[in-house]
Every structure is written in C-alpha cells, then in structure tokens.
Design brief:
This protein is α+β, with helices and mostly antiparallel strands. About 50% of the residues lie in helices and about 15% in strands. The protein is built from 11 helices and 8 strands. It has an 8-stranded mixed beta sheet, sandwiched between helices. Helix 2 packs across helix 3. The protein is globular, with a radius of gyration of 22 Å.
Length: about 325
C-alpha cells in the first residue's frame, strides 16, 4: 500500500500548477493539519479510501491497483444526461474545460478515431451546431423537444460552442475517419427532413450548406497539414475502413486523458489509467494501417470529398 501511495502522491504533485504546494492542497481538500499533510506525502500516514476519492475527484485522476491474471481496474467517470438534471450547456462547458486543459499544455495533441465528423469542426456554424445538439438532446434527454427551432438555441450555448472550435484550432490533432464519418451527420439531417423535425426549409438548406463549408475547411487543413494560419496546430487526417467507435485521446505534457462517446453525447472518461494506455496503443496501430489524407495531391482524399460534397448538395434538395 505504501508504494501505491508514493506513486499516487508523485502523480498528484505533477498536477499542481502555479505557486501552490501539494501540502496546502491536502490541508484544504482533506481538512487536515499541515503536519498530517506532510505525513501523507511521506507515507508515514496512509490515505483513507474517502480521502483518496476526494483527491481523485478534484484532480480528475484515478488510484489504480493492478488486478490479477493480467486484468487492470480503472476509475471511469460518466454523466447520466438522460435524467435531465444536466443538459447541453453543461456538456459544452465540460468540453471547454477539457480543451482548455489541452491548449494550456506545452506539449499537446488530441487524437480521435471516429464514425462521425469530429464535432469541434462543426461548432463554428450556429445552425449546424444547434441542429446537432438538438438531435443528440432528442435522443438522450427525456422529454426533449421534437421539433427543431433555432429560437430555442441562444448565445449561452452557441457562443461557448464557437469557442470550442477556436480552441480546437490551436491544438495539434490526428483524426482517423471511417467511410461512415460523413453519413452519420447526413443521415441525421435526412431523418430530420423526412420526420419533419426541421420544418423551415431555408434553415434545412442552410444546415446542409454549413456542413459543406465545414468539409471545405477540413480540406484546407488537410492540404496544409495544419489548422492554423501561423502553423502551430498540425493536422494529420487518415481514413480507415472500419473503426466501430468514437474515441478521443488527449496527450498533455506526459499526461493522458481519454473519453469514449456513446449514445450521442454520453461519454465514459478516464485520466492517466490503463484505459488511456490501451487507447493510445490502439490508435497508434490503427494509424499504421490507415490511408493518409493529409498533404498535397491525395487522390483518395479528393475522391472522398467529391462524393461528400455531392451528398451535401443532394441533401439540400430535400428541403
């Protein structure tokens, strides 16, 4: 147990920023004296399970004990949006905190393997953003509105979403898409048109146009292999036939954080645990077998995007 606490304390020390000291954090968080805090740091006094939980929750990390028979245990965070106590605004705020943590790191990268367009690309377009969030909300949150109305989406959600896009533009990223990456979003728009979720035809056409514009942005990033004009945010884009998940991995000055999306915007999340290590290994192997879409003259990329643009145009004709 002492060695586990030593490793845990070392890990927490790396998370302290500014002029703060770990001893002061322990005093404040655990309600103990400074002398007792130093005993915890020096393992002369063992942390209790409630104290470990307080520290894990505050520092967004886990206290992992290796299991038997080559099995590992992880502390996974999950937010139950279906209860309605937390909504889309809370989701956007949590994503903004996530991206701010990455953007503030000296060495940073965000990788994803996805069967949908990474949503950060979409968030600069208000109507497209509002529709995407409306569709997710309709699928997850009980008693969410069925009809899409742009008036229901104000600046309290759309402005933070736009900031997410701006933050993403500053973070070097690697994206692996599959052949359904565009179809998931188009299928949602198609369903919304057929089910009369979108009743304003002008708004429907605008959403299709904005999706096309988002793809055009991504094409520019791919050609330049960078998302920012000053060249500080590299962009590597790949294609793989079958992925089967929507998984993100953030690397920040040696720290790892992963979140896996399911049920639209529900996620399971872990920081610096065995799941992060497993995801990192999986992504690295996936990229080895993937087709590169970044750089000049990618024939495969041009074919993929030409078909995608055609689909956007055909979808607009539904409205």
């Amino acid at each position: 147990m002492e060695q586990l606490q030593i490793n845990f304390i070392k890990h927490l020390s790396k998370k302290i920023t500014g002029n703060k000291k770990l001893s002061d954090e322990l005093v404040e968080l655990l309600g103990i004296s400074k002398g007792e805090a130093y005993k915890k740091i020096n393992t002369k006094s063992l942390l209790t399970i409630p104290q470990i939980k307080i520290l894990c929750d505050y520092f967004k990390t886990c206290f992992t004990v290796q299991g038997i028979e080559n099995r590992a245990s992880s502390n996974i965070n999950f937010t139950p949006f279906h209860e309605g106590k937390l909504g889309v605004k809370d989701y956007i705020n949590s994503l903004e905190k996530f991206l701010n943590n990455i953007a503030s790191a000296t060495n940073r990268k965000l990788s994803c393997a996805t069967e949908d367009i990474p949503f950060f690309h979409l968030f600069q377009y208000p109507e497209l953003t509002a529709f995407k969030l409306h569709f997710w909300q309709m699928r997850v949150i009980d008693q969410a509105p069925f009809k899409f109305n742009m008036n229901d989406w104000g600046t309290s959600v759309l402005k933070p979403a736009a900031r997410l896009h701006d933050l993403y533009q500053t973070i070097p990223s690697v994206e692996v898409w599959t052949k359904t990456s565009l179809l998931n979003t188009l299928d949602q728009i198609s369903y919304a048109a057929e089910a009369k979720i979108i009743t304003d035809k002008a708004v429907g056409k605008l959403i299709c146009s904005q999706l096309r514009s988002a793809l055009a942005d991504i094409e520019v990033y791919a050609v330049n292999r960078n998302k920012s004009p000053n060249g500080v945010a590299s962009f590597d884009w790949y294609f793989y036939d079958v992925i089967g998940t929507i998984t993100y991995l953030a690397e920040m000055d040696g720290e790892l954080e992963t979140f896996i999306r399911f049920n639209t915007f529900n996620t399971i999340e872990e920081t610096n645990g065995p799941l992060c290590t497993e995801v990192k290994h999986w992504l690295e192997n996936l990229i080895k077998d993937a087709t590169g879409f970044s750089g000049q003259g990618s024939v495969q990329r041009n074919k993929y995007l030409a078909a995608a643009y055609d689909q956007c145009d055909e979808m607009a004709d539904m409205f």
